[in-house]
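Please review this one:
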Amino acid sequence: MRSTFALLGLAILLLAAGRPAAAQVAWALHVHECYTATSSETGIPSCTRALVSIALPDNVRADVYVQRAQRYLDDGRAQEAIADYTAALRHQAGLHGALVGRGIARRLARDYPGALADLDRAALGRPNDTLILLHRAATHELALDPTQARADYTAALAIDPALLVARDGRARTARALGLVEDAFADIAVSLAEEPESASSLHERGLTHLANDNLDAALEDFEATIAREPEHAEAHSNRGLVRYLRDDLDAAKQDFDRALALNPRLGAAYFNRALWWRRRDAADRARDDWLRAKEFAPSLVTAANARYFGDDP
C-alpha cells in the first residue's frame, strides 16, 4: 500500500502545483521523507510535517494521509488510522487505497459492519481483486459469518487457484460449518501443492480435533511446530489436545509457550483458564478468562461466563 512517489518526480510536481518555489520545496521534501521513512517512529512525524503545509495539493494530501494511516496501522493504532483514511477520502473521494485501508483498520477496531461497507465499496470498481476478497473473507470470519467468508474465499480461488491462504481459509470455514470432508479435501490440495506448509498442517490438525481424532490432531500440531517453532496457535492447540488427554503438565507448558510467543492470543488464555479451573485455582482461571474475553470476543458466551464466575 506504500506509495511509489520518489524524489525524482519532485521537479514535475513542483511545476504542476504552480506555487512559489520555496513553499513547494518545503512540502515536497517533507512528502519525500514521509514516503521513504523506514519506521513509524520517523514516518508519522514526517507525514505530519508534510500535512501542515497549506500549499499541499489535494491529491498529494490525500496520499500523505494514506501513508500516515498505514504507519498508524503498522503500530496497531486503529482509531488514528481510521481518522487519517477518512481525511484522505475527504480530499480524494473514492481513493481505493484509503477505502481498503480503512476497512482493515475498522476490522482491527472490531467495527465489522463498517469494515465490510468499506471493502464492499472498494470491490465495486475491482471485483476481481483477490486482496479485497481475502480481507473481506477474514472480516466475515471475525464477524462469525463463515458462509459469506467461504463465498469470498471461493471467489478468490476462482481467480487464482494457487492462493494457499484462500484454500486454507475455505477449509477453515468448511470446518466451522460442519463440512469436515470438504475441509479435508481443500487441505489435501494445499498439502499436495506445498507439503511443508505449516498453516495447512495446522488447519488439518484443527479439523482432526473437530472430528474428535486426538491422535491425528496431536501429530499435525507437532509437525506444525517442527516446521515453525514459533507458531503460537499450534502450541496452544497442542496444549489443548494434551489437556484433553490428561497430560496436564505438558499442556500447561504449551499454553505458557503460546502466550510467550503471542501475548494477545485469546484462545491460549481460554485454554489456560480451563487448566487453572481444573486445578481449582479459581482466581487465576478468572484472570485468564478476562484476558480471553479481551482478545477473543467470540469466546464470550453465557455458558463460558458462568463457568468462570463472570455472570453479568
